[in-house]
């Protein structure tokens, strides 16, 4: 199981190290300039995640659960099934610690690698 744990500060620094151009998310490179609208925050990042659980964003846990054709009795069970579904398929779970509520992001392995979260 590929799980990465970041502090809230590390997560914010990670987002600040990214840019989005033409619907592609990538790492900023030293010496290059980026337009203000290429900045990445949690909302932009959510468009690239396979699934997420966040206090600030609607990760649509129940809709995602329905998409993977599962059912659950509560949100914790739903998230556990979503997490298992994606991790069994090689995705990466990024857990952010330091917020009042859980902050979990599931990314494809290819995206996590391209963004420097996992080794190339």
Describe this structure in words.
This protein is α+β, with helices and mostly antiparallel strands and 120 residues long. It is built from five helices and six strands. Helix 3 packs across helix 4. The chain is globular, with a radius of gyration of 15 Å. The chain starts with a strand and ends in a 6-residue tail after the last helix.
Total number of helices? 5
Mean pLDDT: 95
Major sheet size, sense and barrel closure: 4 strands, mixed
The first-to-last residue Cα distance is: 17 Å
Q: Helix/strand/pairing class, anyone?
A: alpha+beta
How helical, in percent, are the residues? 25-40%
How would you sum up this structure in a few lines?
By secondary structure, the chain is α+β, with helices and mostly antiparallel strands. It has helices spanning 8-16, 42-46, 61-67, 75-87, 109-114; strands spanning 3-7, 18-21, 24-27, 51-53, 92-97, 103-107. The strands form 2 sheets. It has a 4-stranded mixed sheet with strand order 1-5-6-4. The chain has a two-stranded antiparallel sheet with strand order 2-3.
